[in-house]
Amino acid sequence: MATSPTRMNPPTLPDAGRVGYSQISVIPPGPLAFVSGQVPWRRDGGAVPADLEEQTGVVVENLSHALSALDARPEQIAQVRIYMTELRPETQEVVMTRLAAFLGGAQPSLTGIGVSALAAPDLQLEIEMVVSLPA
Known about the structure:
- The chain has 135 residues and is an alpha+beta fold.
- It has helices at 52-70, 89-103, and strands at 6-8, 24-27, 32-38, 77-84, 109-114, 125-132.
- Strand 4, helix 2 and strand 5 (109-114) form a beta-alpha-beta unit.
- Helix 1 (52-70) packs parallel to helix 2 (89-103).
- One of its GO terms (molecular function) is deaminase activity.
- Belongs to the RutC family.
- It comes from Thalassococcus profundi.
């Protein structure tokens, strides 16, 4: 018998349900959790920072809230995808420094992708994760 995915929009993240997607999908029987790309949008709707380092801080905070909602730790992150509008060595260093601190030594698979645009013109960064959860 097939089981439906569990969809989550925890109150500590922006309300994705309003626009038709879930922040987190837990897929049985793995289970794996697919965390939607997090951008520097704040739950309270505050302004997006103009600076990449500040944007990275908000994104990492959102990723942390997603892990907390899953009762998971960075070691359980199976995959990370990073989308950046200005993918250059110096911008990668800004993002990877903050991301490495968040990961705390965990070494998930990671892909960096340069894109021409994200969901809004002021966004420079989006990061998504796949998280392995205990059975």
